[in-house]
Each structure stands twice: as structure tokens, then as C-alpha cells.
Amino acid sequence: MLRHFAKLLTRQGFRTMATKETGHLKCATFNILAPCYKVVDKCQWTLWYTKESSHPEHYIPRYEAIMQLLQSKEVDANVVCFQEFWFKDVVFNLFREKLGHRYEIIQLKRPGFKSDGLVMLVDKSYKVKYVENITFNDAAHRVGLLVHMELPSKYEVIVVTSHLAYGNSYWDQYLRLTEAKKLMDAIENYSRRYRNVPVILAGDINGPEDSPVCECIFEEDFESAHKTVHGREPKVTHKDHSENCTAVDFIFYRGSSKCIVKPTDSKLFPTEYGHEEWPAEFTLSDHRLLTAEFDLVEKTTE
């Protein structure tokens, strides 16, 4: 009840309070489909499917096109959250060569035999104050990445990204919800020390808006930037290997007792395509890139 009351006060902006200088942050999230999972040639036996990982002549140009999209004026994000980043030396070196001049590259590989994981690009004009690797210790080998940063405007923000378990079976749904709860616990444990710092959570949660995972996130006072800006979520952000289309990519936000977080824009890229169907021409990934822009406003007493 106390949390709900605090949320109402935050939305009303504490009418007895005024705001001063505004900070700005643009965040992007993109599952870039690791080549070890991308099938380029199917045959009768699933185990013998040809993967893109065997064809650098395919994945190198695809990655270069992804980086071109990121560097475009339309995207131009301060923080970029990647899921399914493939931890192969030639790939990491390529990203460092093309993007390392602007971004600090923070990485977290999934444990065990998994060759992909999470990467967060943070604009070098930002100061990275703390990085926490979140390991769920489950059968899906999933992880989360928490980065506490300070903007040039001196506002601080905690940015978190994750890629939750895939699948539609009862076990998969249970596993995904357990991961979401562990992720929320990790955010709450860290936020207790920094209650004045807002949080942005971006990533592929492998569940739609009405899923138990989203409900778990909303219960912790997070809101979706795209829905706040447009009044709805995109209908399709992902097309899986079975040709199913759904919306599983989100950028959530939560203000703090000292900072109002106001989404000012949110876009699905490439912007020339609509959000209701998967664009057949888009082949950079099986997910689309999602961005959200935020104004950060400090609350002060009048």
C-alpha cells in the first residue's frame, strides 16, 4: 500500500514541489540474434541445420549493418543494450573498432557452454560508477547486467538489461517468471542503497504485455516507455524460428523520490515499417531495435 501511495505522489509530481534543470537520456535495446542460433540452411534433421556461425561472409556484413543503424542520426542512443551478443573474438573486435571510440563496452557472457550474452554500450561522456553481474543460476543459464552511471548533467541513473528464458511450455513460463523475480530482487537490493536514483530496465523478456513476467515488473512500479508515449505497445517486435510474431522487447522506467522520469519519445526501428506485422524486408535480426528518450527532472521544494 505504501508503495502504491508513493507512486501516486510521483505521478502527481508532488504539487508542492517545483522542478529545475532537466537531464536527457536516450536508451536503445536490441536482440541482435547470435549467429550460433541463426539458421541459414534447413534440412530434414534439425541437428544438421546450417548455422550462420559457420559463415563469416554472412554474419560480418550483418553486424556491420547493425552498427550502421546504431550510428545513424535517427538512433544515436547514449546507452545501447544488446541481447544475444556473440562472444567470438572477431565479432567483439569488430564492435570495439567501430563503436569503441564513442562507447564504453560492458559485457557479460552467459555461464557454461553458452557463447552469447549481454553487452551494454555506455556513452563515454557518462561516468560508470558501478557494474553488477546478475546470475540467475538456472537451467537456462540466463543473466542480467546492472550499470549505475552518471550523466554529464550530473543526474544519476541505473540501467539494467536482461534476456529471459525462451519457450512456451509450463516449465519455460515458470522459469521465466522466476528469472524476472530474481532480476527485481537484484534491482531492489541495489536500489536500497541509492533510493534517489531512477531505474531503466531494457531488454528481451520473452513475454508480451499481459504475461506474468510483465505483471511482476509492473508490480515493482515500472512503466513501459513506449506505452506511456503512444498509449499502446507495439504489436510485433520479434519473429521466432517458428514464424510466430509477438512483442517481447521493452524499455521500462521507474522514477525515484528525488527524480521524475518522463518518456518523451519511443520508436521501433527501422521506422519506415509499421508495428502490426513483421517486415519481411528486415533481415538484420529476428527482433527490431527499440528506443526510448527520457527527460530527468529533479524534484525540489518550492
UniProtKB/TrEMBL annotation:
Gene Ontology MF: a single term: 3'-5'-RNA exonuclease activity
SUPFAM superfamilies for this protein: DNase I-like (SSF56219)
Pfam families for the chain: Exo_endo_phos
Protein name: Uncharacterized protein
Organism field: Paramuricea clavata (Red gorgonian)
